[in-house]
Each structure stands twice: as structure tokens, then as C-alpha cells.
Design goal:
The chain has 13 helices and ten strands. The chain has about 280 residues and is an alpha/beta fold. It has two domains: about 150 residues, Rossmann fold (3-Layer(aba) Sandwich); about 110 residues, Rossmann fold. The strands form two sheets. A six-stranded parallel beta sheet has the order 4-3-1-2-9-10, with helices on both faces. Strands 6-5-7-8 form a four-stranded parallel beta sheet, sandwiched between helices. α5 packs across α7. The longest helix is centred in the middle third of the chain and has 19 residues. The chain starts with 10 loop residues before the first helix and ends with a strand.
Length: about 280
């Protein structure tokens, strides 16, 4: 009787499932995650909402950076993410550059972190926008990052920023009945500048994009990041096959939050459907 040959081991099957992480300060990034899954349903995703510390817009640089780094470590170390998208504009403004240039280089040189600001501005200029309004958290507007990045892309465009600090709490806590009047007050000085486009510079604002379009009488092109980031991510993966090949393709989607509260659970069900469970994210 001949010797039985051992079966070949598929090394890839023993690897941990490599995922795409999506991080936001709270609820807003779920809109982006949902939109990404529609265009790229085959990949494995982990969503993390830092609901315990939302909103980030009124916090210091050090606090925002530390919260962002801790969230990224959670996605890398506990959930085997190879690529993380920071869906939070405030975190992108504050932490992205340092995370990419120092944190990744020193700790995870083969992994990648992407933000939402440059893709958003690229899309705006591709559409011919030159007079661009921006509604966002106070931190994002005051940082002038949108102004700096648009100048790198084109000298022909100008950003007009308007801090809108009341919108995130209203969206997170179902404050719909107060929304229209507050939005009108925020939008009025921007509309008077003769904008051709308006960037919703916080992923939470995706929830009110239709309302913004109605209040501007559809005279301004409203740029919403759930419509921008998915095709930009698809393009990124096409241009970086070395990353795309590392990602598992089983179509899984997990949701984590630092505080699994009633409001967040209601919003998860509203956005994702009844079959999705939000789990508590445990990290220092």
C-alpha cells in the first residue's frame, strides 16, 4: 500500500479575515458605510461609532487625536482591518495627517488610513465647482483644512465655511421638528454669497441632505459624502491591487459603538434594518 500524500494546505485560508474599517464619532459614518456596501458588497466591513464621545467638534486637538488613534488601534488590532476610512470630518481634519505620517509608519506600515476631505473636494472640482459653501462642525470650519486642500487642487475655487454646531445633536437625538428653522438660519449667509455648490462637511449631515436641497430650492449643488466616498473607494482599490488582494470577500458587516445606547440602536435599525446588532466596543 502506497504512502498517503498529505493534503496541501491553503495558506490563505488560515489567514485571519482582513476587513475594511469605517470609523466615525457617532452615527453619521453609518450612512457612508451603507452606501459603500451598495457599491462594494463583497468585502468584509467593521463599523465603529464613538458614541460615548460624540460630538468631536467642540473638543481640543489632543482629545480628538487621542480618541481617533484609540479607535484605529481597535479596528486594526481587534478586528484585523487592513484599511480604515475615517468618515468623521473633524477627525480627518485633526488626526489624519499625523496618523498617516507617524502612527502608521511607526506601528502599522502595511496598513492604510483614508479620510473624506480630499475625495470630497476632488469631486467638487470635477463637477466644476468654484464658489463652494461648507457646513460642518466648528472645529472643521476653523481649521481651514478645506481651504488648504482646495488650494492644492485648483486656484479657481473658494471655500465659504459656516459652523453648524447644533445639527449633530439634533440628528443624533431625533430633533426633526427644530431642524428647518435652524438650518435656514445657518444656510442664509451662505446662500447670499451666490454659491454654486455646498459641501455637507459632516457625515451626520447625510441624514438631512434632502432637506438641505429643498431649503436651497435646488439652486445649489449639494455634495453629500455618501454619494462621493463609495466610488472614490472603488477607484482607490482599483489603483492599489496590493491592498485589494489582501481583503477578504465574504460580505460581512459588523457594527460596534463605545456606548450602545437606545438612540444609536434606533438609528442602526432605521438605517441598516432589523437584522443588524450593535456590539459594545471595549478599548482603552
Amino acid at each position: 500500500m502506497g504512502r498517503i500524500k498529505p493534503k496541501k494546505v491553503n495558506v490563505m485560508s488560515n489567514n485571519k479575515r482582513k476587513k475594511i474599517g469605517i470609523f466615525d464619532s457617532g452615527l453619521g459614518g453609518l450612512y457612508v458605510a451603507r452606501a459603500i456596501r451598495i457599491i462594494l458588497p463583497e468585502y468584509n466591513y467593521v463599523y465603529l461609532g464613538d458614541t460615548l464621545n460624540v460630538p468631536y467638534g467642540g473638543r481640543s486637538y489632543e482629545a480628538i487625536y487621542n480618541l481617533s488613534e484609540a479607535a484605529i488601534r481597535f479596528l486594526f488590532d481587534q478586528h484585523d482591518c487592513e484599511l480604515v476610512i475615517i468618515a468623521c470630518n473633524t477627525a480627518s481634519v485633526t488626526a489624519l495627517r499625523k496618523l498617516q505620517k507617524e502612527f502608521l509608519v511607526n506601528n502599522y506600515p502595511d496598513k492604510r488610513i483614508l479620510g473624506v476631505i480630499v475625495p470630497t473636494l476632488e469631486s467638487a472640482t470635477e463637477l466644476g465647482a468654484t464658489q463652494i459653501g461648507l457646513i460642518a462642525t466648528e472645529y472643521t470650519v476653523r481649521s481651514k483644512i478645506y481651504d488648504e486642500e482646495i488650494a492644492k487642487i485648483t486656484p479657481c475655487a473658494e471655500i465659504f465655511g459656516q459652523p453648524t454646531p447644533l445639527l449633530v445633536p439634533l440628528i443624533e437625538h431625533q430633533g426633526d421638528k427644530y431642524m428647518n428653522q435652524i438650518l435656514k438660519d445657518y444656510l442664509k449667509p451662505l446662500i447670499e454669497k451666490g454659491l454654486d455648490s455646498l459641501i455637507l462637511g459632516c457625515t451626520h449631515y447625510i441624514a438631512i441632505k434632502d432637506r438641505v436641497r429643498e431649503l436651497t430650492n435646488h439652486r445649489v449643488r449639494v455634495l453629500s459624502q455618501d454619494e462621493i466616498i463609495p466610488p472614490k473607494l472603488k477607484d482607490y482599490l482599483c489603483r492599489h491591487p496590493e491592498m485589494e488582494e489582501r481583503l477578504s470577500k465574504e460580505g460581512t458587516f459588523s457594527i460596534y459603538a463605545t456606548d450602545v445606547n437606545t438612540s444609536f440602536l434606533k438609528n442602526v435599525e432605521k438605517l441598516m434594518g432589523a437584522g443588524f446588532e450593535a456590539k459594545k466596543a471595549e478599548y482603552a
